[in-house]
Write a structure and sequence with these properties.
There is one protein chain. This protein is an alpha+beta fold. Among the domains are: 66 residues, no CATH class; 270 residues, 3-Layer(aba) Sandwich (Aminopeptidase). The strands form five sheets. A seven-stranded mixed sheet has the order 1-12-7-2-3-4-13, with helices on both faces. A hairpin with a 5-residue loop joins strand 3 and strand 4. Helix 5 packs across helix 6 and helix 6 runs antiparallel to helix 7. The longest helix is centred in the middle third of the chain and has 24 residues. The protein is rod-shaped and about 185 Å long.
Amino acid sequence: MNGDDPRIARTRRVPPQAGPGVPATPPHRRDPHGRDPYGPGPADHRDSAPPYGGAPQQGRPQQHGGPQRGAHDPRQGDPRGVDPRHQGARGQADRGRPGQAGPPQRHVEPTKVLRRDQHAADGPMAYSQAREESPTLDRGPRYAPTQRPEPFADQRPVQQARGPRRTVPPPPPSAPPQRNDPAPRPARRARKRHPFRWFLVLLLVLLIGSVAGVIHLDGKLTRIDALGGYPDRVGDTPGTNWLLVGSDGRSGLTAEQEQELATGGEVGPERTDTIMLVHIPKSGATTLISLPRDSYVSIPGHGRDKLNASFALGGPQLLVQTVEVATGLRIDNYAQIGFAGFADVVDALDGIDVCLPQAIDDPLAGINLPAGCQHLDGPEALGFVRTRATALADVDRMNNQRLFMSALLQKATSTATLANPFRLWPLASGAAKSLTVDEGDHLWDLGRLGWAMRGETIATTVPIGGFDDVSGSGNVLLWDKDKAVPFFEALADDKPIPEELLTR
């Protein structure tokens, strides 16, 4: 387009006045805003411009500084349609021949202002909406109207100044990845060692294994009803009382074992060779009392006879009842062991060490032991507690039994035995197979018994008054009633036995 937008504050070109040979500018359309698109005057209808050299047309003021009548404006070009800047030599030649006519003039259409937001009736339209004009006769060159500059006011709203913008620091640049390099493996943390945890696990395993072993061995105990009730039974006494019995039973032994153990073959009903009473007080030392098997006592329902006869007549129940009537103590626990079990327990401990005050030679018991300290295996230990081939016979045998019991418990409860499972397990297994207990007793009760006798133990025997020969019973042992009564009364009251009543 030759024309500029009148809204832009730039120079406009105002159409020239008509002159000779120049057609008048066609009537312009009114600007919808009431402004003259060709000049600053009012937007009213104007007549066609006169030709060059003519008088100004009525109603249109003469342009300031425009060409006068008869004058030629070099800015408007040659009135014949030739630009004086492009005439060249031909122009010079034409001016030299005044009588010769010039070349035909070209038809120049004036510049049109087209707007897209206006209808054809209201004002200039866009180029695509403009009506076609019929071609006119060639009246000479036409030029775009001269436009004058007009001020332009910007109608856009002024934005208010904003406060300082919060700036967020950019993130730190990340290290560029290395090319053709494998991804670094995460550092492996050093594994912490927990020795205390392993110790707890080991301790827990040992504890669970021990509990399981105890339950297993407890099931191997032989149980009988040894503490059956009877009319007018002795009432409960303080402390805990155990009755330990070693019988001469030979059941389960082969001929070779009987010969090895020197049992002497079958001798009739089962009797007891060893009877011991253990009193464990609530506080204080444990007392181990030997009850001679030949003690002449009253057997309920059978009159008076030796103590071991009660076992042959009525078994463990009658023996327990006889002891309770004779001592006035209530028996709480019962344990019995035979010949074979006795020897097995000693062998499980690899024997015991005893110190003999005098030599013992007893072919019936199968022993020949010199005086002094020596090591005894199972068969030798069994002969040692059974022999009567001494000066005091049963009295010496009771002393030997207490000596053996002390040596056995000392070794069975030692740290070397308890900390060695290869020695403790055979001991516990042999004892469980060899022992016969009451229905209410368990293996842990036997453990408490052994632990109670591990420390300080007072070993004594019932006060003895002498010996006597009784018809039908043979030689019997008599108790000293004056000393035996306070002796057992002290135990019934859970008090220490007076020193003058003890028999060392």
